[in-house]
Amino acid sequence: MPELDADVDVDADVEHLERLRDELRTLGRVVVAFSGGADSAFLAWVANDTLGASSCVALTAVSPSLAPEEHDDCAALASEWGLRWEPVVTRELESAMYVANGADRCFHCKTALMDVALPVASREGAVVVLGVNVDDLGDHRPGQAAAASGGARFPLVDAGFTKADVRAWSQRLGLRTWDKLAAACLASRLPYGTPVTVQLLQGVAKAESGLRRLGFRDLRVRHYGDTARVELGVDELPAALERREDVVAVVKGAGYRYVTLDLEGFRSGNLNSSLPSRPSLED
After folding, report:
1. Which of 54, 141, 195, 214 to pair with 47, CA 20 to 30 A apart?
2. Mean pLDDT in consecutive groups of 10 residues from the start of the chain, 283 residues
């Protein structure tokens, strides 16, 4: 994980954070889509610190695609930081387009999020904000388009924050999420075209939870029918081989018949490599 650069111009850096605070002050009242990841956690903390809890709601979308550990961590962070936290149930699995798991699945997921976030924002007289950073704009993220079309704002983008900026400032502010690994929704473990079901999501969640209990940190369990392709951080591959029997037992215990270890290691969003093109936010 990145470390703070001792040569950073502190005054310029403070101005960077102040730009984010100014963006939030301009919005006045916000509902932060709060998944507990590094970006949304940083945005929620800064919004709460800048606007106060009375003007900031941290909203967590709860569904079978949210790993149980992530739900628990959102609750813990809200308690630690004094956030006004509101978990809400989303119903993306009731959408046939979401279940079909096409390349636009995230569009339908974020649509479901906005369906529950907008009523909260209306109640609060607030604007929905997402922890999208500048680096996110170059990947295949159709969910951003859905959120933007629903009126959501991206203050980190408006203030020019990259992922590295988010991590550096989170560390400087003492936020334990500064080095938290990416934790995309569980549906991202299913190849495009594999229908999303509660049973498959629960199987992936159980396998990943078991691997975390074994001490592995940077991981994904990719679902391919009765085969699980396990991705771990490259530095964790030797430990996986040493504990081969434990790894196999945990993953098979989640319902898989075959367990494979991807020697290329963990790659966030690697299923997007199968797409012929990567539409931008405007597409």
Report:
1. 141
2. 44 84 98 96 98 98 94 97 98 96 93 96 98 81 77 95 95 95 89 97 97 94 98 95 97 98 81 46 29
Q: Could you tell me the CA-to-CA distances from 75 to 26, 58, 70, 170, 183 in Å, in that order?
A: 28, 10, 9, 18, 16
Specify burial of residue 257 (Cβ count, 10 A radius: 0-12, 13-18, 19+).
Answer: exposed
Tokens of 176: 């334990």
Q: Max CA-CA distance within the chain? A: 56
Tokens of 144: 């951003």
Strands 227-232 vs 258-261: parallel, antiparallel or unpaired: parallel
Q: In one letter, which amino acid is 107?
A: F
Place of tokens 């997921």: 109
Residue 58, CA atoms < 13 Å, CB-side half-sphere: 31
Q: Which tokens hold the place of 194?
A: 């594999």
